[in-house]
Design a protein that fits this description.
about 270 residues, single chain, disordered C terminus, about 45% helix, 2 domains, mainly alpha, two-stranded antiparallel sheet, three-stranded antiparallel beta sheet
């Protein structure tokens, strides 16, 4: 209302309207809305004479490319944490009891009992953060890992070790337990908000150097803790959000992935 009043009280208000060029999608873009949206973004930036943001969309999810991985601008894990804290739940006080290497599918009702949540709206909201199967059930290992990450009481070494133990599979013959594509994709989707196809592609690349189609604990932690780029990504996303929301020395706000958005041009 204040803006409307200040505008209406001016003797003369000048409004610039700029029409962007019409963009006709190609046949490939017609079949791929994500490709179409990304290409339109680049054309708009070029027409306006401003740099295109590094953000792109995977479906409706805004992501940014970091190294060989796509990660969410804001991890949904933080949103889940806000929902649980609002309900008065401390993630570290929940006894998850998830069995390593073996899935246990639970219903929304069992999810509510396990987390001691009584408000139906809170239960439905928290439950929706996890991938559900055709019967509407979620893997309790997903819940256990999310709660462990939100607890904040574990070091990154402990958290990545727990993630490996939950989703790695025992080998009948071979070097013990290995983390395969599905488990790797689930971990990155839960902790970093990475789209599963992008995580699966990265897993295949990481396995190329070895004789197996899975990652050992050492290989997984080399990637998540010691890789120059991706290690920083894990440490940034899995630290408490208030630390990340602090302003940078230059006064600009840092994104969830630790990067700083480019300053807006005058008049944007």
């Amino acid at each position: 209302l204040k803006v409307l009043w200040l505008t209406a009280s001016q003797p003369c208000s000048i409004v610039d309207v700029e029409f962007l060029p019409v963009y006709h999608p190609s046949l490939e873009e017609s079949r791929n809305p994500t490709l179409y949206a990304n290409n339109v973004q680049r054309v708009m930036a070029q027409a306006l004479g401003i740099p295109a943001t590094e953000c792109e969309f995977v479906g409706s999810l805004p992501v940014i490319v970091v190294g060989r991985l796509k990660v969410a601008l804001e991890p949904r894990l933080w949103e889940l944490g806000k929902v649980l804290r609002k309900a008065g739940l401390s993630p570290g006080c929940v006894d998850t009891g998830a069995e390593p290497g073996r899935s246990r599918m639970i219903s929304q009702e069992e999810f509510a009992r396990q987390l001691q949540l009584s408000d139906p709206q809170t239960v439905a909201g928290a439950f929706s953060y996890f991938q559900q199967d055709a019967q509407g059930l979620v893997d309790f290992r997903d819940v256990a890992l999310a709660l462990a990450a939100l607890d904040g009481g574990r070091s990154l070494d402990e958290l990545t070790r727990l993630a490996f133990e939950l989703f790695a599979e025992e080998q009948v013959e071979g070097p013990g337990r290995l983390l395969y594509r599905e488990g790797f994709s689930t971990i990155l989707h839960l902790l970093l908000g990475s789209p599963r196809p992008a995580a699966a592609t990265l897993h295949a690349e990481l396995c190329q150097a070895g004789p197996h189609q899975g990652l050992s604990l050492c290989q997984f932690q080399d990637f998540s803790l010691h890789d120059p780029l991706h290690g920083k990504l894990f440490s940034t996303y899995l630290r408490p959000s208030p630390k990340l929301q602090a302003s940078t020395p230059g006064g600009r706000m840092a994104l969830a992935n630790g990067t700083v958005p480019a300053p807006k041009q005058k008049g944007d």
